């Protein structure tokens, strides 16, 4: 009797877990349709992709089914040879960083890095990976991750960093020294936020100045200070940086 009860219970739990996963995947599919990029879930134990949204430009022109079949080996196969070191450092130093965190802290931290990968025309393109743990096993090891893939806003590969949703501090990894350094996140002034938001609405300098009741010269002054603060050269780069780093 006990055997059948356990069997039935396991079957019911399995169905509930499957339905829960389906809801989770459906939510990710909806999210991927509203964002420019791709999302995938990776089981670190099996190195299999349990879910991947469509964007062939970021996956060598392969369909999501083809990428799922290859699994995590896809990145070793299609990444630029010189950038394989970056992937290895993320898998070693990156995940060692997470070992110092509690179960819940792991899920609130994200590791970000850039590397080149072949597109459908066999051309190297620079992409960004942002990885967040979503499942931790009993031993405290990360068993599943969710990753958002997008075109990189940087000009070179590397740029390994770890950030948290609950901290104003982030950590950068130096590929040359193999060490982490702690830095403070950039915070924007209220006027800088206003200017970026108005740029996002498609307004020009004169229109922004009129909207904020200041002169165009004042807008140019705040804009130049913003460029200097975040290390960019123009408003397009500024908008990309601010949006990708969730500064507004």
> What share of residues are in beta strands?
25-35%
Mean pLDDT: 82
Total number of helices: 9
- From the spread of the alpha carbons, the general shape counts as globular
* Fraction in helix: 40-55%
| String of helices and strands | HEEHHHHEEEEEEHHHH
User: Could you describe the largest sheet, including whether it forms a barrel?
Assistant: 8 strands, antiparallel
> Strand order across the biggest sheet?
2-1-5-4-3-6-7-8
Q: Report the strand count.
A: 8
Poorly predicted ranges (pLDDT <50, ≥5 residues)?
Answer: 1-5
- Rg computed from alpha carbons, rounded to a whole number of angstroms: 22 Å
Can you put this structure into words, describing what you see?
This protein is an alpha+beta fold and 248 residues long. It is 44% helix and 25% strand. The protein is built from nine helices and eight strands. Strands 2-1-5-4-3-6-7-8 form an eight-stranded antiparallel β-sheet, sandwiched between helices. A hairpin with a 4-residue loop joins β6 (158-164) and β7 (169-174). α7 (205-212) crosses α8 (216-230). The chain is globular and about 60 Å long. 21% of the residues are buried.
